[in-house]
Amino acid sequence: MVTVKKEGIVFEKTVLDFENEGVLNPAVIRVGNEVHLFYRAVRSGNHSTIGYCKLSDPLTISYRSEVPLLVPEFDYESQGLEDPRIVKIENIFFLTYTAFDGVNALGCLAVSRDLVHFEKKGIIVPQITYKEFDRLANMKNPVDVKYFRYNQHNVTLEKDGERVLVWDKNVIFFPRKIGGKFCFIHRIRPEIQIVVAIESLDELTETFYCNYFTDFSKHVLLSPKYPHESSYIGGGCPPIETKQGWLLIYHGVRDSINGYIYSACAALLDLEDPQKEIARLPYPLFSPKLDWETQGEVNNVCFPTGAVIFHETLYIYYGAADERIACASLQLTELIDELMLNPKENEN
């Protein structure tokens, strides 16, 4: 078992209007010796913006903005910008987030060169109805029946005059191009999917995604496998490059008599062919155990979204009970060694 230290709560909600209901699920990136956090700030009524905080080391706050950094500007994000992640690719910071309009939740992108000014690029995931997803995804191979359980939205086709689309969240870029092309993961429940080998974001057209869905099973990266992730899984932190492969910290969810339980999980992907799973932990990396993880806006949640490395120690930042931001740490080499003891090819 990997030794994980719960470092505790990094920061909590305040009385400020934009974050008086909760702070959670931060995008995290290290620049020099500082750590920048772009977090989901929730105000009354479940309206979200993205707040900003800077740390002088992995656990010490040096600056926290009293106003949100990014706010809703367009109809598709009218009720919130949720659950950001961030990477740096060729001197440009790619910040992804989920836009929510009260009906649909879809992955979006904003870019920056200085972590201060961000340009929104809009929705980059498919905008597809359940009926169309059903038709396209089953063209070549039947998909897991759980897709229809999780994505029917009670078979509602329209709500408040808007089309109800398949929710596509947890968009996370790999922090470098692979073979000279962009790669990112996304999640339509219950599995994690991957988009690989695009030279430009302009390629993400309606036609591109129609072709993508007609061979949908080809794009499934990880499926629920172990008891702690038996309900569904989703992206967590941006992939971390190691000599052994891409370390992917993701979240796994299982149902219980007390509702869903969200845990942090770990897998290893091939460096040059990230669609290939090398290894996966057969147990959760860490789960909600402490009071501030088991009790909150949503109980029993450890939702990892960002990680940094200092002196071979991996610090994982996560939303705790959907109300506060916490951190856990572990030795990176220990985690990689443990993953290599659980390779995919040894499965029965």
TrEMBL record:
It comes from the Bacteria. InterPro entries: Glyco_hydro_beta-prop_sf, Mannoside_phosphorylase. SUPFAM superfamilies: Arabinanase/levansucrase/invertase. The keyword Ion transport does not apply. GO terms for molecular function: glycosyltransferase activity; hydrolase activity. Keywords: Glycosyltransferase, Hydrolase, Transferase. Signal peptide: none annotated. Pfam families: Glyco_hydro_130 (PF04041). CDD domains: GH130. Belongs to the glycosyl hydrolase 130 family. This is Predicted glycosyl hydrolase, GH43/DUF377 family. The lineage of its organism: Bacteria, Pseudomonadati, Bacteroidota, Flavobacteriia, Flavobacteriales.
